[in-house]
Amino acid sequence: MSQNPNCDPANGDHDKHRIVLKPPQEGGPFAELLRHRRSTKSYRKTPIDLETLSQLLGTAVGGASATHRPYGSAHARYDIVLTVIAAAVDGLAPAAYRYLPAEHALVNLEEGDHRSRIADGTLDADWLTTCPAMLLLSVDLAAANDAFEAQEAGRGERFCWFEAGLIAQNVYLWAAENTLGTVFLGGLDSVETSTVAWRLVPPSHTMLGILPLGHPAEGAAFES
Ligand SMILES: Cc1cc2nc3c(=O)[nH]c(=O)nc-3n(C[C@H](O)[C@H](O)[C@H](O)COP(=O)(O)O)c2cc1C
Questions:
Q1: What is the mean pLDDT of residues 196-218?
Q2: How far is the CA of 19 from the centre of ligand 1 (A)?
Q3: Within-domain flag for 33
Q4: How many domains would you assign to the chain?
Q5: Whose alpha carbon is nearest atom 30 of ligand 1?
Q6: pLDDT for 144-181, tens place per residue?
Q7: Is the minimum distance from the CB of 165 to ligand 1 under 6 angstroms?
């Protein structure tokens, strides 16, 4: 079995070249925020409110400028689309909504509680049905590949995964700062997901991941 080079036990070769670094300084708001970043997989049923959702979307995904976002995107294409599944959000009817970052607005796509439908598209995250809201990250992979075809086949798709990772980290950090829980769920059944997300994400899109949002169940996160 191949070894993860990050986890290799010490060996002669490593010892010879090892430079032990000074530990990072304690404290500082960014270090503290990173220390609190967690994946939360168990949520209280307590609703979140629309103001919280709005702050999260406006800070982590949208932005004051119509042309600039709080995360990077190859050629500033911003291919990833966010769909909000709201189920227990005070001030927002249960429904699927498209988030429009440039306008910082939500568009109602389909009324109802879609959580169990989305949970059916995951490998094992049945607990999604208890979280108040979630964000679906989707993208048109073919369009992204076309855009970068002159550089290398498949590059557009790879760039989209990076972009999704950057968005996810923003959401994680915002959640950590605001004692909310989230986790990047990438373990999706690709066939099932395309069925359950029908009409919720654009027809040409592939779902890359899900970011649930809610109040962590006791002991689920923020322990120091
Ligand atoms: C690309 C990626 C995919 C992931 N997919 C899943 C998933 O399908 N189900 C899940 O429960 N957690 C998933 N996670 C969360 C990891 O389990 C979690 O990040 C890891 O256990 C480390 O915990 P931490 O984020 O609290 O540091 C995923 C994380 C990443 C980065």
A1: 94
A2: 30
A3: no
A4: 1
A5: 184
A6: 999 999 999 999 999 999 999 999 999 999 999 999 99
A7: no
